[in-house]
Amino acid sequence: MLSDMADFLYDGPDRADTTLVLAHGAGAAMDSPFMTTFAEGLGARGLKVVRFEFPYMVTRRATGNRRPPDRQPILLQSWREVIARLREEGISERLAIGGKSMGGRMASLLAAEPDTPNIQALVCLGYPFHPAGKPERTRTEHLRNLSLPSLFLQGERDKLGSKAEVADYAVADSIQFHWSPDGDHDLVPRKRSGFSQNENWATAMDAVAEFLKSL
Length: 215
Fold this sequence. Notes:
Blueprint: E1 9-11, E2 18-23, H1 33-44, E3 48-52, H2 55-63, H3 72-88, E4 94-100, H4 102-111, E5 121-125, E6 150-155, H5 163-166, E7 175-180, H6 197-213
Parallel strand pairs: 2-3, 2-4, 4-5, 5-6, 6-7
Antiparallel strand pairs: 1-3
Helix pairs in contact: 3-4
């Protein structure tokens, strides 16, 4: 599997107390503006950040063909192999996993497994609580008993799970939320809201850094 994965992208100090591994969303690669901004911003806040790509995105980058995401078992196995490889490289003992949208969802599924690898925290950037336009198809069952310290950073008007919708979900007490004012799935507010993308993103990065450093 690792032969089908791109090289890692690293941000932040060479050595840090905590390493955060981030996976991309379904449609954008690990070097998308969102992923790059957050990785560099969190690195500047003292975290070591590692980005990787799932096999389908590696193929898409190489061929230009827009393949759909790999099946869930492949995505989860990719996560396991990434963690194993990083442990072999001798990264810091405190390892957090997460990602943007689908990447964060896969990380949360891994974190909820009874034989989950040795990880200390979960960070989801825009968790997709349900498919767009299908609020009845919630993706929350595994979140009800999640024991791992977790931080979900969400936009208040996210079409994949707004603040009002999420308030009615039964999730574990281990999950903390940071809500970006008037933010969409990318935490971006509308111009008329009085908030800005830069403000929302910077505040979200501050929240991640504070959360991980408090563990």
